[in-house]
Amino acid sequence: MIEVVIDDRCGGCGSCVDVCPSDVLERAASGKAVIARQADCQTCYLCELYCPEDALFVWPQTDRIAGITADQALATGDVGGFRRDSGWDEHAATHTNQHWRMGAIFERARLMAIDDAAAKAARDENGRTS
């Protein structure tokens, strides 16, 4: 789930806002990205992938907000790691693009979403968890 936009790194290009399939991000009056609907994040990492400034941090946890701060994100050493490991932009000469491997992760997420929807439908139908 998207956890933080590192404000002093964000150049305001809007790429992350444009690429997000769930409209999680918006542009603030300053032009910089802000998290508007965090709970809607699909953890697809596209915002991180398209951010040329490495200003975004997506935590792999998909079902809850971790509450990570910008300092904590930077301390992980993972900020910008997804772009680097995917061989995008300036990393193309040193890292092979392995983005095709995400197919298995997206399939797992799809199956989890189907299971979650079925469980919600069962709760709605029965008024309780089945």
Automatic annotation (TrEMBL):
Pfam families: Fer4_9. The keyword Transmembrane does not apply. The keyword Iron applies. Residues 1-30, 31-61 form the 4Fe-4S ferredoxin-type domain. GO terms for molecular function: 4 iron, 4 sulfur cluster binding; metal ion binding. Keywords: 4Fe-4S, Iron, Iron-sulfur, Metal-binding. Transmembrane segments: none annotated. This is Ferredoxin. It comes from Caulobacter flavus.
